[in-house]
What we know:
Layout: H1 2-10, H2 17-28, H3 35-44, H4 48-75, H5 81-92, H6 98-115, H7 122-136, E1 140-141, H8 154-160, E2 162-163, H9 165-178, E3 183-186, E4 193-197, E5 209-214, E6 220-222, H10 224-233, H11 248-266, H12 269-281
Amino acid sequence: MNKELEALVKLLDDPDEDISRHVEERLLSYGNGIIGFLESSWEHSFDGLVQQRIENLVHKIQFSDVKNELKLWYQSGAFDILEGMIIINRYQYPDMDPQKIINQIEEIKREVWMQMIYEMSPAEKVKLINHVFYQVFGFSGNTSNHQDPNNSYISQVLESKKGNQISLAVIYSIIAQKLDIPIYGVNLPQHFILAFVDEAEDTPADEQIVFYINAFNKGFIFGKRDVDSFLKQLNLKPEKHYYEPCSNLDIIRRVLRNLTSSYVKSGNETKVQEIAELIEAVEGQAPTL
């Protein structure tokens, strides 16, 4: 196989567009398995055009993988929000080891768990998470550069300790759920918050939300009236879904829309188009298995 690959790479700088397009299609057909070979070819090439075409090929292969993984995640029921966030992360950071992200979240979870006391109230549990998340680990909302795309990539948020409303809320809720604390995302217009849910079977549906949490504002606890006021400021009717936990699919779509907004603002048309393809991969209702 290597001899054919070597021959194809040598043809990448062919001035005949039909030939170079055919060569690219042939190389793309090999998929992820040839990335190592292409990267090695890039290192040994002194031709700028060939290097550029190799970079484009590697990106196309990696992008295709991300799109397929996201589609599979969606078609499998979109159960694991962390997996969905890692797939999106791979779009911008294809070489990032997902285990590093998992380990960083486990470290925060472990710190909360070590300080947990049996029979804590919902408010006490949230205050403990807040202490560990914001004081011990130093997470905060990125108010100075809110449109930075890195606010939406989980590896960068865990590294910089800064994120937007949704990325901070997602990490916060993942940690809570790993500790069997029922905290879920709520898809508010122009904001994203969390809800502490009473999951007892005998709790009436309209009393299940114990309170709300603003992960962007150091885990501030607030009530339904504050959500009412917020919607009133936006001149929006208080619709039911603005108050209730949303699905993992809603979260991933919103992360992707935030990325679209960031790339539109920075004028990166290529990334805007690619994110549109990722949104397309998770369109419609998630299949029920």
